Amino acid sequence: MTPIYESDIEHFVIDLLEEQGVEYLSPEQQEAERENLSEVVLLAAQECHCHA
Prior knowledge:
It is a single chain. By secondary structure, the protein is mainly α. Helices cover 58% and strands 0% of the residues. It is built from three helices and no strands. The protein is extended, with a radius of gyration of 14 Å.
C-alpha cells in the first residue's frame, strides 16, 4: 500500500480549490498581505471573492 503524506493531501486540496476558482497564495504572498502574523483570514482577498 502506498503511504499518503500530509503534503499529498495539501496539494490535492489546493488543486481542487484552484479548479473552483480560488486563488492559492504562497506563504510569502500571505505574509505580504498581513499586518501581523496573528491575522488568520486575509480580509482583502475574502472581500474580493465575496463581491465578485
